[in-house]
Amino acid sequence: MPWLEEEIRSAKAKVGGFADGELMIGMHIRHGDSCLKTKKSGKICHGIEEYMRAANEMQQLYQVSHIYLATDNPDIAQMLSKHAYKWRNFTWHMLELDDGVQGRLETSSLGLGAKRLDSKDCPKNSSGCVDMTGAASLSIIEVSLLASTDFFIGTFSSNMGRTAYEMMSVEKGYRPYVTLDFAWCGHWGISKPVYLAYNPKKKLRRKC
């Protein structure tokens, strides 16, 4: 789809850093509806400090100082601004939408970062709805930007996170990554044992 390819090129230009030849970490902070701290799911809502510990280790190993951030949490950008002094060793890149809302991943399920339609354009008895076409396009753009980076930090319990890393691997071969929850799995929708990345000896039976 030429129009989508153009949107991706435009997004890269707005974000900056992609055309400069600088190494970049793709960081996907997945909060929102998957942020369930339960023994059954094994999912934990990891704070940004945990992501930054991984980023600092990558910086020491690979001399990378740029981070592209994609998140469904509207508070992350404010947190970064407030505590910028902690991570001034990195240059941050985020997708800024025309309406001033920070771009967020997985908008199709959460409705974050997507344009809200007037009630007249929504189903009957609805007070408002999300532009699902725009939400889907935004998700594709953000996954493409994550896949265009050189390293990945995120969670493989997220479909978006796994997809971004898989696309990166197809384009660039194996790239270093850190997953804060599950190891990579390829059996989407099928209940099989999945190992926890932070405890390789423990595994849960769950769907990817």
Low-confidence regions: 98-115
| CATH class identity | Alpha Beta
The span between the termini is 29 Å
What is the CATH topology descriptor?
A: Rossmann fold
* Side-by-side strand order of the widest sheet: 3-2-1-6-7
Q: What does the largest sheet look like?
A: 5 strands, parallel
Helix content: 25-40%
* Category by helix and strand content: alpha/beta
What coarse outline follows from CA principal-axis ratios? globular
Structural domain count: 1
Count of distinct strands: 9
Portion in strands? 15-25%
Q: Any idea what the CATH architecture is?
A: 3-Layer(aba) Sandwich
Mean pLDDT: 75
Alpha carbon gyration radius: 17 Å
Count the DSSP helices.
Answer: 6
- Along the chain, the helix and strand elements come as HEHEHEHEEHEHEEE
Organism: Cymbomonas tetramitiformis
Protein name: GT23 domain-containing protein
Keywords: Glycosyltransferase, Transferase
GO molecular function, one term: alpha-(1->6)-fucosyltransferase activity
Characterization of this structure:
The chain has helices at residues 2-15, 48-62, 75-82, 107-110, 132-147, 159-172; strands at 24-29, 66-71, 91-93, 116-117, 129-130, 151-154, 177-179, 192-196, 199-206. With 208 residues, the protein is α/β, with parallel strands linked by helices. The chain has one domain (2-206): Rossmann fold (3-Layer(aba) Sandwich), CATH 3.40.50. A five-stranded parallel sheet has the order 3-2-1-6-7, with helices on both faces. Residues 98-115 have low confidence and may be disordered. InterPro entries: GT23_dom.
